[in-house]
Amino acid sequence: MTIPRTSLDRAADLRAETGVLDRLRADPSTRVIAVRDGRVRVAGDSLLRVPASDVEQATWALLGRAADGGAILLAVLPPETDSIDAAPEETWFGLRDVGARLDAGDAELLIAALALGGWLRDAPFCPACGGGTELRQAGWSRRCLVCGREHFPRTDPAVIVAVESADGDRLLLGANANWGGRMYSCFAGFAEAGESLEQTAHREIEEEAGVVLGSLRYVSSQAWPFPRSLMIGFRAVAVDERDARADGEEIIDVRWFSREEIGSALAGDGPVGLPGPASIARALIVEWHEERA
Fold it and tell me: Is residue 6 domain-resident?
């Protein structure tokens, strides 16, 4: 799996500049990505960028620089607003709706906007004392007005693992209870306090699918803004595929799939639904399927 270099210039050098957001909002070359309730607007197959003057009430942050050097700002809109971006509900899209349609640069920008926007919306108070906070570093930190602590957008690490049989001919996937058995995917879980990523992978797979892993290797990672996660993708081999069983709570079914069955599912012909093309889960499944195609 190719691990791309970042294409987003996050312009960290500008974050400490006093009044930088006001200056950039007044610059006619600045463009804005507006986020509302975790969704954005898209023009064709690109994120819609609007002039800062078109956006009224919002919480602002600096996302970075465009290729032409112009600033890209984030505007986190309230659920209902009178700004030009208060378009009909059906014109706002989430990552799962449009992530696969965007090029790599826009996809990275979208994930950054959703992750930072979620933090700006959800974390206005100090988690230590409950006091109000003020935004600093162009929207990338908060300082508590009561106790003085500084807070930053948190990122929660989670592993996601594609488990294959010892002969490499079958892939183990699970159906999450939240999906009602309609879709099967790789196994995932958040790292707990004091765990390494490798320990998390071994624990999660044994808990959810009953399988002990004989080998484990890192593949790639993906920022996933639900709410602010970092998905770390692994490939693993089961010691004994006969041990596979669902935990019955989070995972309601586990199945070993042949390469032919996965190929049919990827083509949309069954036997089950698979994760959408914007997810690392899909990428792990595709990588396994194509190895012996």
Answer: no
The parent domain of residue 238 ranges over 156-290
DSSP output for the chain? ---PPP--B--GGGTTSTTHHHHHHT-TT-EEEEEETTBEEEETTEE--EEGGG--S-EEEEEEE-TTS-EEEEEEE-SS--STT---GGGEE-HHHHGGGS-HHHHHHHHHHHHHHHHHHH--B-TTT--BEEEEGGGTEEEETTT--EE----EEEEEEEEE-TTSSEEEEEEEGGGTTSB-B-EEEEPPTT--HHHHHHHHHHHHH-PPEEEEEEEEEEEETTTTEEEEEEEEEES-GGG----SSSEEEEEEEEHHHHHHHHTT-SSSB---TTSHHHHHHHHHHHTT-
* CATH number of the domain encompassing residue 277: 3.90.79.10
| Structural domain includes residue 266 | yes
Give 9's pLDDT tier (boundaries 50, 70, 90).
Answer: very high
pLDDT digits (tens, 9 = 90+) for 82-140: 555 555 555 788 888 888 889 988 999 999 999 999 999 999 999 999 999 999 999 99
User: pLDDT tens for residues 54-84?
Assistant: 998 899 999 999 989 999 999 999 876 555 5
